[in-house]
Amino acid sequence: MSSEDHSKSYVNVLAALAVGTAVTVGVSLLDLGHWGNIALGLLIATIKASLVVLFFMHLKYEQRWWAGIVLFPMLLVMIIIGSNLADTGLNGKNRGGDLLSDPLPVIPHAGQAGSAPAHH
Amino acid sequence: MEQAAAAPGHGEDDHVASFERARLAMWLFLASEIMMFGAFIAAYTVLWMSAPSGEGTAFDKHHLSWKIACFNTGVLILSSFTMVKAVESISKGLRSKCEDYMIATAALGTLFLGVKMYEYSLKFADGLGPDTNVFYGCYFLMTGFHGIHVLIGVILLIWCAFYVKRFDQHHYAHVENLALYWHFVDLVWIFLFPIVYLLK
Q1: CATH number (domain holding residue B127)
Q2: Hey, which of A89, B127, B131, B164 has its CA 20 to 30 A from B48?
Q3: B56 shares contact with chain A (CB less than 8 Å)
C-alpha cells in the first residue's frame, strides 16, 4: 500500500456510494422487467463493492496479483450459482424444476432397474 | 543481534515485510469469508429462482422495510468512511484522531445493530421468524451472520481504540487489518441490501 494522501478520493468514494445506494433504490422502484431489475440492481452493487475494495481497502495500491485473492473465490461463487440455475424454474419464467414443491424423482439403484425392490 | 547491528535499516525492512505479510494473511482470511457468504447467497439465489415471483409466494417481501435497510446501508457506508480515515490518521502518526475515528466507527456499527434489532422485533411481532418459510429462513440466516460480523467488528474496534497508544505511523497493522475486516462487512451488506430487500 502506498502512503500517498488519498483524502480526496475517500470523500469521492463516500459520495459515489451514497449516490449508488439512492440509484439502487430508485431503480428497484421502476419496472424494468423481472430480469432488467435484477441485472441493474446487481450491476450497481458490483460497482459499489468495487469502489470499496479498490479505494477503501486499498487493493488499487497493492501488488496486482493480490486482486486474484478476491476474484478467484468470487469466480467460484459465480460457478456455484451458475451451475445450479439450470435446476431452478427461474421464477416460473423458464421450464425447469421447482425445488420448493417438486416431489423427489424415483431413481432406481444401479443394477436394480426394472426389478422389484428387495424386502427383508 | 550482531547481524542486526551490522545491517543498519534491516529491522525496518523486516517490519515492512511483516506488515505486508499481515495484510496478505488478512486478505486470505477475507477470501474464506467470501466463500462463506457466497455459499449463503448461492443457496438463497437457487431457492429464490426456484420459487414463482410475486405476491403471496414464499419470496413475497412486502413485510420487509427497504427504508430501514436503506438507512442501515447509509450507516455502514459512513462507518466505512470513518474507518478509512482512522487508518489514514494513524499512518500520519495522529493517534488521537485515529482513536476518535475508531470510536465513531464503533458507534455507527452499534447504531446499525440497534436498527437491525428493531427490524427483527417488528418481524417477530408480526409472527415472522426463521421457521416461517424458506425466504425468512434465508433472511434471518444471512442478516444474522452479517450482524454477528458487525458485532465482532465493534468489539475489535473498541479494543483497538483502547490500545491505540501501541500504534504509530510505522506500526499499525492491527488497525489496517481491522479496517479491511470492517470494509468487508460493509461490502457484504452492499450485496445483501438489493438481493434480500429490493429485488423481487
Answers
A1: 1.20.120.80
A2: B127
A3: no
Round to whole Å and give the CA distance between B146 and B181.
Answer: 12
ipTM: 0.87
Q: Which of residues 121-140 of B touch A (CB under 8 A)?
A: 134
**Cβ contact, residue pair A28, B84, below 8 Å:** no
Whether B199 sits inside 8 A of A72 (CB atoms) is no
Of A71, A13, A106, A49, the residue nearest B192 (C-alpha): A49
Instruction: Write b or e for each residue in A13-26: b if 16 or more Cβ atoms lie within 10 A of its Cβ, otherwise e.
Output: bbebbbebbeebbe
Size of interface A-B (CB pairs under 8 A): 145
Which residue has 414464499 as its cell numbers? B58
User: Cα angle vertex A68, ends A64, A73, to 5°?
Assistant: 160
Report field, pTM of the whole predicted structure over 0.80:
yes
Number of separate domains in chain B: 1
Q: How far is CA B95 from CA B155, B158, B161, in A?
A: 19, 14, 9
Could you report the per-residue pLDDT of B31-68, keeping only the tens digit for each?
A: 999 999 999 999 998 888 887 766 777 788 888 999 99
Residue entry with cell 467488528: B153
CB contact under 8 A, A3 and B81: no
Question: Which of A14, A38, A62 has its CB closest to that of B77?
Answer: A14
Sketch the domain layout of chain A as residue ranges: 1-62, 64-98
Give the SS3 label for residue B65.
coil
**Is-contact B85 A66, C-beta < 8 A?**
no
Looking at every residue in chain B, the average pLDDT score rounds to 89
Q: Are B113 and B163 in contact (CB under 8 A)?
A: no
Q: Flag if B66 and A34 touch (Cβ within 8 Å).
A: no
